[in-house]
Write a structure and sequence with these properties.
Elements (H helix, E strand, L loop, with lengths): L2 H17 L4 H15 L2 E2 L4 E2 L4 E3 L4 E3 L4 E2 L4 E3 L4 E3 L4 E2 L4 E3 L1 E3 L13 E3 L2 E3 L4 E2 L4 E2 L4 E2 L4 E2 L4 E2 L7 E4 L4 E5 L8 H12 L1
Parallel strand pairs: 1-4, 2-5, 3-6, 4-7, 5-8, 6-9, 7-12, 8-13, 9-14, 12-15, 13-16, 14-17, 16-18
Antiparallel strand pairs: 10-11, 18-19
Helix pairs in contact: 1-2
The structure holds coenzyme A.
Length: 191
Amino acid sequence: MSITQAVWYLSFHTLYGLVKYLPMLGGDVLRYAVLKLFLRRIDGWVWFRDNVTIWFPEGVSIGSGSMVGENCFLDGYGGLEIGRDVLIAHNTSLIAEDHGYASRRMPIRKQPKTPAPIVVGDDVWIGCGVRVLKGVTIGTGAIIAAGAVVTKDVAPYAIVGGIPGRVLAMRPDDTEETPSELAEAALRRLA
Ligand SMILES: CC(C)(COP(=O)(O)OP(=O)(O)OC[C@H]1O[C@@H](n2cnc3c(N)ncnc32)[C@H](O)[C@@H]1OP(=O)(O)O)[C@@H](O)C(=O)NCCC(=O)NCCS
């Protein structure tokens, strides 16, 4: 790590440490202001509740209208891309890396890390106490049930739960126009 990088990380952890635990809206605003300086990208307003821990903020992007709940853990080492209007409930971790463990001759902590990006689509709801592991993509509109450990990609609009996460159901599709909506549209065209 270069001196510039070390100073950057020190600045981040010092400044963010000052605002990390502040309660309520005032805390949310100050956290947002600090994270706007250090995260890879924040589009529009995002709620960061208190005691959210962020490692490698330079790898974390998040879209507008999203919320990261209390005590969450975001690790951007391998890249963490979170879409718009995403709800991440309290005590959830998104971890874009693992420790390498290929050799028994060396302690795991000394082996090279194995990073891989996590991508979370727009309008995803991740319940409380979830763990999303490296390399996972969660499709638009999916729901991750409380307490799940997500090890594989999640299809758009799927509801996934359990350890390891499995599809419990698909969200209902209400995007087709109802007969009354179709009739109204036809009347509008005639008018
Ligand atoms: C995923 C969730 C939204 C599903 O709610 P729901 O549509 O009302 O579903 P149901 O409670 O009817 O459960 C449907 C099935 O999924 C199972 N299921 C529900 N939640 C589950 C979970 N967290 N883990 C594993 N299985 C779960 C149920 O046991 C049930 O299985 P069955 O059909 O074999 O009986 C809800 O269970 C959940 O986890 N919500 C997150 C709550 C949360 O973290 N809130 C934080 C504040 S934002």
